[in-house]
Design brief:
4 helices, about 170 residues
């Protein structure tokens, strides 16, 4: 949504879903499985490349919520043996944009997202799949050499190719 034209309710809904939703899941999960200081939790949170690059005026609040997710995850790293990392995918074909805040179909939003994803796929020759994200996640974070505190962009090299914004 455009920041200026959006209602405060629309912006608040985005914060509640993207950021507070992630906090609720993290808090519930950690509280449910954390037993004592010797327990090590391995957590991977999926965010978005938008935490690094601005998507423009229609993405202001979305970008901010994704940056906030990365920030909270990094602050949890030294906390009580929690090993937490963030995956920030680039263009992934999803249904994002297809629904408005009242869960009504938004064909214009869906078309804008589809065009952006198609442009990324043409530029790169292919787009990211959820299977690729799962394989990278398993290798980097759950093997013996697992990382901690990382926020990795997985976008088939799009950001390295010099794309400004997302």
């Amino acid at each position: 949504v455009d920041f200026i034209d959006a209602s405060i309710e629309q912006l608040r809904a985005m914060v509640e879903i993207n950021y507070l939703g992630t906090i609720n899941v993290l808090k519930s999960f950690i509280s449910a499985v954390y037993e004592h200081e010797e327990t090590t939790l391995n957590i991977v949170v999926v965010s978005s490349i938008s935490s690094f690059f601005s998507g423009g005026p229609n993405m202001v609040v979305y970008d901010a919520t994704k940056a906030a997710i990365s920030a909270i995850c990094k602050r949890l790293v030294p906390y009580r043996n929690i090993r937490i990392n963030v995956i920030s995918p680039g263009s992934v074909r999803t249904n994002i944009g297809a629904w408005d805040v009242n869960f009504q179909e938004n064909t214009a939003g869906k078309e804008i997202v589809r065009q952006g994803q198609d442009a990324d796929a043409v530029r790169l020759g292919k787009e990211i799949t959820t299977g690729q994200i799962a394989r990278v996640t398993k290798f980097l974070f759950f093997e013996d050499h697992g990382m901690n505190g990382a926020d990795l962009v997985i976008d088939e090299g799009l950001t390295l190719a010099g794309r400004e914004g997302y």
